[in-house]
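Subject: Protein entry, chain in single-letter code together with its fold tokens

Area: Proteins and the way their chains fold up in space.

Attached in line: The record itself begins immediately under this heading.
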Amino acid sequence: MLRTLYKERQLWIISVPIIVWVLIFWYYPMYGLYIAFTKYFPGQDILSSPWVGLDNFILFFRSPDFWNIIRNTLAISGLNILFGFPAPIILALLLTELTGSRFKKVVQTVSYLPYFISWVVLASILFNLLGNDGIVNQILKSIGAVEDSIPFLSSGKNFWWVITGANLWKNVGWNTIIYLSAIAGIDPELYDAGKADGLGRFRAIWYITLPGIRTTLVLLMILSISGILNAGFEQQLLIGNPQTIEYHEVVDTYAYRFGIQLGNYSYATAVGFFKSTIGLVLIFAANRVSKKIFDVSIF
């Protein structure tokens, strides 16, 4: 081992700043997880805080909002995976089939441009489009499609679909870049051989392109499953309102409202720790299932 380290010493020396950065900003903050098991007060030393064990977790599990929060989180994340996972794959396949390079670049640029728009700006756009006096309702009224405004943003039943559409529009183009890179790595000779065997475009996609990017597909699916409790934060705070709180409140916003805003940092940490633990369990489970079924895994 020491001999290997000596041979690779230049690589390790180059990696030292990155290793230090990871230790400081990723591992050192884990020290704060201790307060999830204590009754911490701001300004107090963490180690001197009274130990309460699992009381903060039990308080969260017994909260009357617990199941509603889990429902909203799973529903929004599930819709994001259901529509957001295949959408960039389909867009990448369509872009690959385009023959005009200039048009292809324009479409790709337009599609991933929303990724650089902040949620603050995007929320303003949604209010102008989907508000009760927004552009969409004005158009629908002008053509006689509806008499009263459709409550896109003030109805809880519509919120899940609005937030899913916003997430899809914002992220689909950027996620497409990953699949375009994977498709670019497929050997062009495979397509030439497929043409010689009489494969059309759709069959070439099915038998060459999709199997060629299978590893990328599976790995990203594993990461999506592990992050199923990450249903968003900024978009719920900015787009949600008291009328939709029954449908937009998720784990992160709940920890922020009942933990950070009320100064109950121990409770907020316990909620976040619960979410991270579930994510850790899911990534191990998804990784194991993927390894057995597809023979592809992260570790």
Remarks:
- The chain has a mean pLDDT of 88.
- The chain has 16 helices and no strands.
- Residues 63-117+164-293 form a domain with the MetI-like fold fold (CATH 1.10.3720.10).
- The first helix runs from residue 2 to 7.
